[in-house]
Specification:
Helix 2 packs across helix 3, helix 7 (98-106) crosses helix 8 and helix 13 (214-226) packs across helix 15. By secondary structure, this protein is an all-alpha fold. The N and C termini lie far apart (100 Å). It has 4 domains: 8-62, no CATH class; 67-123, no CATH class; 131-183, no CATH class; 214-268, no CATH class. It has helices spanning 8-20, 34-44, 47-53, 63-66, 69-80, 88-95, 98-106, 109-115, 131-143, 157-166, 169-175, 180-183, 214-226, 233-239, 241-251, 254-260. It is built from 16 helices and no strands.
Length: 307
């Protein structure tokens, strides 16, 4: 079957046939085919003139004619019954210029939804944030040990909603029963090393750093003793490097840190110190140059807690 031979009579006949079937006079399905539209525009000068020649109103060729107000409201009510709203791209693929026609007729898409008697929240892809939803999301993340600081929160809209409802993100954490000093991560300097990339390619946020104090070092040493972990320097440096470095920074060396925690350093050595060998003639070498060692408790009881 070859291409149809377009004449004035053929174009008018097809326009009237489409009008009798109730199809819109716009290009698309259902409606006017691109071939008919191009032929009518070429032979009559424009598509509006083709409609006039067929005895129809030229306004029938406008996009708004395909979407009269009643049809727009009906489609919106049908969309509100869906369990999952459609994305903007899905709306365009399924209904063409529905949204643009609604904006031209009602002023905006939200006004068209309100005119149909439907709650606009039902057609939103993402539910709007409320006070209760913000607090519930924060508590859920905290129970799952997920970060809740403003810098690491996803999606970012929850941070904006929290600041809008409670004034600041710290006030939002307090409203959720969370201590901002514990759950807030201070921004690291630009020279700090970035987090290691995860499997998905995104960089993981570094965990909050513990601010070491002499009391924290002593408590960590006693905790290792209660857990029956070795307290000699090599083991602590291998297993808990931050503790070892903090002890050396605050107490000058690991031996002083053990003494501050109430432990005898000589009893917690990897290799016990050997007694000095006698020199020639059976005399002991002079020890005046060595520092006198602090006395150790021979029983090494569990040290009392710091006051």
């Amino acid at each position: 079957m070859g291409k149809p031979k377009w004449t004035r009579e053929e174009i008018i006949r097809r326009i009237l046939d489409l009008d009798a079937k109730g199809y819109p006079m716009t290009v698309g399905k259902p409606g006017v085919s691109p071939a008919l539209y191009q032929a009518g525009s070429r032979i009559f000068g424009s598509w509006r003139n083709a409609l006039l020649a067929a005895g129809l109103s030229p306004d029938r060729g406008n996009c708004d004619e395909r979407w009269p107000p009643a049809k727009i409201l009906m489609v919106i009510r049908n969309l509100s019954r869906r369990r999952k709203p459609l994305r903007k791209r899905e709306l365009e693929e399924r209904f063409g210029n529905l949204v643009s026609a609604a904006r031209r007729i009602f002023g905006s898409w939200s006004k068209a939804i309100l005119a149909s008697g439907v709650d606009p929240a039902k057609l939103r892809r993402v539910a709007p944030w409320t006070r209760e939803r913000v607090l519930e999301t924060l508590l859920t993340r905290a129970l799952r040990n997920q970060p809740v600081s403003a810098r690491l929160m996803e999606p970012r809209s929850i941070v904006e909603a929290g600041r809008r409802f409670f004034g600041s993100w710290s006030a939002t954490l307090e409203a959720a029963g969370l201590d901002p000093a514990v759950y807030t991560v201070r921004p690291r300097s630009t020279r700090a090393r970035a987090g290691t990339p995860s499997v998905t390619g995104t960089r993981r946020a570094p965990p909050p750093r513990l601010s070491w104090t002499p009391e924290n070092v002593v408590a960590a040493i006693r905790a290792r003793h209660l857990q029956q972990k070795p307290l000699y320097a090599v083991a602590v440096q291998r297993e808990e490097t931050p503790l070892y470095c903090a002890a050396r920074r605050l107490f000058k060396n690991w031996r002083s840190a053990l003494l501050a925690a109430g432990f005898c350093p000589e009893k917690h050595r990897l290799i016990p110190r050997r007694p000095p060998k006698p020199s020639v003639g059976g005399l002991m070498p002079p020890t005046e140059s060595r520092k006198p060692e602090a006395p150790c408790d021979p029983i090494d009881p569990l040290p009392p807690a710091l006051s």
